[in-house]
Design a protein that fits this description.
The protein contains 8 helices and 4 strands. By secondary structure, the protein is mostly helical. Helix 1 packs antiparallel against helix 2. It starts with 8 loop residues before the first helix and ends in a 15-residue tail after the last helix.
Length: 181
């Protein structure tokens, strides 16, 4: 059964809210897979979480009149557009202080991280066996623990930045206006 989308302002708030929650659920499940050494599927779910965060932020931008409704409808189904609109998360994950992961227990127990850009090809390789240049591509051989860790870090950073802008610490606003300058 397909959902007929209403285009009233409150609908965009609901899209924002539900896509944001879905992204959080996808990240949680990605971490479960990561902890169980299922790195290709962990990568896939984290990549999908980024797409959902992008959709949620875009819907929030429409709700706050920062973006146009017709632009949202043109691009929310496009993986290129969704990942293109969330590249800020990759950039933030590569800059201070987000490019450090605390290992503990001491305050100085940190490791620097420089996550690679989320790539559609890696997403595809995380799910499907493929054949390229006379070689068999197998998800478990194409997506490493490091690949999964990096994209999970990008998603974590995206949620941190959203919380900084829209949460208690920030200005209680939704959408990308507060951090996409």
């Amino acid at each position: 059964m397909s959902m007929v989308w209403q285009t009233k302002k409150l609908d965009y708030f609901e899209i924002y809210r539900r896509a944001h929650k879905n992204a959080a659920d996808l990240l949680k499940e990605s971490k479960i897979l990561f902890d169980n050494k299922c790195y290709p599927r962990a990568y896939f779910l984290a990549y999908t979480a980024l797409e959902e965060i992008s959709k949620s932020q875009y819907a929030a931008d429409v709700f706050t009149n920062f973006s146009k409704e017709e632009d949202f409808h043109k691009s929310y189904k496009s993986y290129q557009d969704k990942i293109g609109r969330i590249i800020w998360a990759h950039n933030d994950a590569n800059s201070y202080p987000h490019n450090r992961i605390w290992l503990g227990p001491d305050i100085d127990d940190v490791v620097m991280i420089a996550p690679s850009e989320p790539l559609w090809e890696k997403r595809q390789n995380s799910l499907y066996v493929g054949f390229e240049h006379n070689n068999l591509n197998i998800p478990q051989e194409k997506i490493t623990e490091n690949d999964a860790m990096e994209i999970i870090h990008i998603v974590d950073t995206a949620f941190e930045r959203i919380w900084e802008v829209s949460g208690e610490f920030g200005g209680n606003q939704i959408g990308t206006k507060g951090f996409m300058k």
